[in-house]
Structure formats: C-alpha cells, structure tokens
Amino acid sequence: MSEPVNRPVGRRTFVLGTAAAAGTAALAGPLASSASAASFGYSDDGSNYVVDTGAGLVFKVSKTNGDLTSLVYKGTEYQGYGGKNSHIESGLGTSTVTLKQSGSTILISVAYGTLLHYYAARSGENNVYLWTNKADDSVSATRYIVRVKAGMFLNDEPDSYTYAPTTIEASDVFEKSDGQTRSKHYSKLRVMDYDYIGWSTGSVGLYVVRSNHEKASGGPFYRSLLRHQSADGGGLYEILYYGENQTEAQRFGLQGPYVIAFTDGGAPSSSLYHANLTTSWADSLGISGYVAASGRGKVAGVGITGRNTALPYTVGLANSAAQYWGSARSSDGYFSVPGVLPGTYALTVFKGELAVYSSSVTVTAGGTTTLNTIAIPSSNDPSNASAIWRIGDWNGSPSGFKNADLMTYAHPSDSRAASWTGNVVIGSGTETSAFPCYLWKDVNSGIIVYFKLTAAQAAAAHTLRLGVTTAYANGRPQVVVNDTWTSAVPSPPSQPSTRSLTVGSYRGNNNTFTYSVPASAWLTDTGAYNTLKIYVASGSGSTSFLSAGTSIDAIDLLA
C-alpha cells in the first residue's frame, strides 16, 4: 500500500539529480499525458490567481506581489513556512501582476520596477515553469526559493540542520551532537554536476529543475547553496547570482525556464533538463527578453589535442551577457555547446578546473560555428614542466588532498575531518593525501615539507611553484627554506571577498605563486632532508577557520 503523501519519511530522500536518474522518472514533463486535463484553467479568488493544471497540481500567485502562495499537489499543501511564501530573493513589494491564457498555456506576469518574473503552466503537467528577467541590481540577488512546509520531507543530509541545533559559524552553520556539521551551503555539487534538486517520500517528489544558467555568474564550477531543511521547513533554490564567492560580475537579462516539478516519487522527467527542454510553446507568449531556439547558435569543436586523458576537460564560453559550457569527449576532445545567444565569446578549455587554453569565437543566430582541432600548447599545462617533486596535480582544484572531498559538504571543524596539521615527506607515497587541502593562518600555517636533493640539484637554483584555487581574507603563501631563506610576502591576487572555505567552496580564481630559491638555500648533505615551511600571510581575517586562508591546487619544485 502506498504511503500517504503528507506523512514524513525519516531519512529517505532523493537529494540532487543528474540525467542518470532519468530511467526511474515518473511522467512529469512536456511528454506527460494531458488525458486528465479536463479541469485545466484558472480562477481569481480576489487575492490570488489560482491555476489548475488538470493533472493534480493547483497553485496560487499573489495578485499583490507575485509570491507563489500555494502549491497543492493531489490535495496536499506543500508551500510555505514561517509565514513566508515562495518568491524571488526575499520577496517583492507591490507589483503589477497579470494573467493570460493562450490555448493550453497559462502565463502569469509579475512586474516590479525593472524586474520581470513569469510563471507558466501547461495543460496536463504537474510543473510550474519560471523565468526571471533582471535588468539591473535594484534587486540585490537573483534567487528563487521554493519554501516547503515542515514535516513534508524530513532528512539528515549535509544541507539539513533539522538535527543540528548548535550554531558554530554566523547563523547558518550548525553542529550535531556527534560533531558532524550541517548547513544549507553544503550541497557538494558544482552547477555543472546536477540537473535537479529536491526530495521524495517515495510516493511524492518535489523538485526544482535548474535552468541553463546562461545569465548566471561563476561558470561551470561555481558552487552555491541549493537546498535546505530545518525544523521550520525546507527550501529549494535556483541561484543565479548570490554574491557569495563570486568570481564574475553578475549578468542581466532573462533567465529560464527553471521548473518546479511534482512527481509520484521518481525523478523529474529528463525532458525537463535544461539540455533537453524545448519551449517552442513559449515562443509567442511575449516574455520579455525571450529568444527562441531559432535565434540561437551552436559552437562545435572536432577535437582537442594535448590533453591529459586521465582528467575531464570542459569548454566554456563567456562574455558580459551570457555563459555556457560543454564537456569534451574523453576519446578525442570533441565538444558541442548548443543554444548560445548570438555574440562574441571568450572560449576557454579547462583541464579539470584549470584554464589551459583560451581564444575567441563568434556565434550567429541559427548557425553552427565549427572549430578545427584545438591544440593545447605543452607550456600551457603546468603539469608538463619537469619537476624534482610534485604534490597534487595541476587541475584547478584541491582534489586528492587531505579532507578535500569532505570540505564540499562539511565545515572544517567537522568530526569526520582528519587533522589539519601534520607534515609531509616527499617519497613517502602519501604526499598529496597527507597534505591538507586548505591552509589557515590560525590553524596550520607553517606546515613542513621534507625532501632530499642530489648533489647536482643542490648546486643549482630552482623555481618553487604553489598553486591556489581561492583565498579567504587575502591569505597567501610565504615560504621558508631550511630556516635560512625566506621569500617575500607576495601580493594578494584577486579573489572573492566573502566566505568560501567554510561554506563548501574552494572555487575562486586560480593563481600560481612562484618563488626563485637560490642554490645557497639548499643543504649540501645529500642524505639530509631539506625543509620547506609554508606559512599563510595576511593581516586580515579573524581566528581559527575564519582566519586568512587558502585552498591548494598543487605544489612543485622544478628541475
């Protein structure tokens, strides 16, 4: 017997989804049957427009401010907690809200100053399609939050703090009694890693299917909060610009659609995923800034040479108006980026998350820009440089370093984290896994790397390189060799000014620090260990894990 849809299910949850889950999808998208859509239509209850999709979903939109005030699926209300509705950012003020039906589509338009927002319903579908057109920064962020009543989808995931009452940082990072940490920031995923977010009881699923993020900022590797759950209720987010750990200025214009989707417990239909979704039915609705498929172009590359085939490669397109990306095929580097707005873009090839090639490409409406094989120069990949020793790989992320994976969904103080201190010996075989992914001035500054040199190596000057992926409070590395040679304090590179390392994100601006170490700094005894001490320099930050810090990409001593 199926479980009542409003019964909490202890720790059962479908967290974040990719196309791989499509095989279990309940019918919930444009391919859904409209046979049961006899009641499709709308009404006006005086305060709200009430839309019935004819397939089990009835939702309301406030005629005053454009809030989504009700989400009733098969007779159960899911929307709202703490007296708050679902809406853009923290809600809009008095707005102009209008409704228009065009055959099997109902469109609700919300105008608030220069911001325009849209809700669309299709006959026979348990979905709400949303677009947001932000023209300027009169609204501080671009975030839609679906607020969900308490008790509908209980869980104890990293982004939940239902079971974590102790606050350990700001007002949004919490600790459980067992020392595990929870925060809405701990999503684990980069934006390129997921198609939808949400929950399921097994009999009802509620999801937000993300848009293509063409007007978002931060590129394919950006990390942000996606969802949260607390004793008060839950939230599902579409984050387009949040202002936290941002590496780019925000983009303006129409973004969407992103979709609120109900299912009978399975994943949302893959036909709703941004890579598959077609919205020709919206072409004539009059959505401001809307560009149909015919007005977009495509970039395709026949291949990429000079790759490290052990790592994934991503091709990104970006200008001040839009951003896109696509994965390069592992066998030959072929890539395709469709649905691109016309314009000239910076094209960047990323090895992992490290930029190793850049050029420019122009896209025209209705056309395909085909690129010949891209050859990555050997000198563009720092891994190709001959090194006496190397810790980690140059891939633009701290992957492989101690605690690196955990830090995308936990606070550094989490009980599951290995000790942030401890020195490293070159030749031990555990150089990377023993080296902490993050360094802080007040936690583990001064970590030591031990290594030996041959007589020939000790007789020459060498370049030491230290790559970072982001920094907090201007933290940057200063090094000391054998307690006799000390580098200058490098200037801080451009990095986001907000929290990063403690809220699940190492993604900032990749930067390489180089130090020219003279031959006089090395020990001449080939049997003795040289020491490299790495300190974090900065007068900013506070204490502990909020002291100045940085995330490590790779460290090497060149031959």
TrEMBL record:
This is rhamnogalacturonan endolyase. Its EC number is 4.2.2.23. It catalyses: Endotype eliminative cleavage of L-alpha-rhamnopyranosyl-(1->4)-alpha-D-galactopyranosyluronic acid bonds of rhamnogalacturonan I domains in ramified hairy regions of pectin leaving L-rhamnopyranose at the reducing end and 4-deoxy-4,5-unsaturated D-galactopyranosyluronic acid at the non-reducing end. CDD domains: RGL4_C, RGL4_N. Residues 1-37 form the signal peptide. It holds the Pfam family RhgB_N. Gene3D superfamilies: 2.70.98.10, Carboxypeptidase-like, regulatory domain, Galactose-binding domain-like. It is an enzyme of class 4 (lyase). Residues 40-289 form the Rhamnogalacturonase B N-terminal domain. It is found in: Secreted. It comes from Streptomyces coacervatus. PROSITE patterns: TAT (PS51318). SUPFAM superfamilies: Galactose mutarotase-like, Galactose-binding domain-like, Starch-binding domain-like. Residues 296-371, 388-557 form the Rhamnogalacturonan lyase domain.
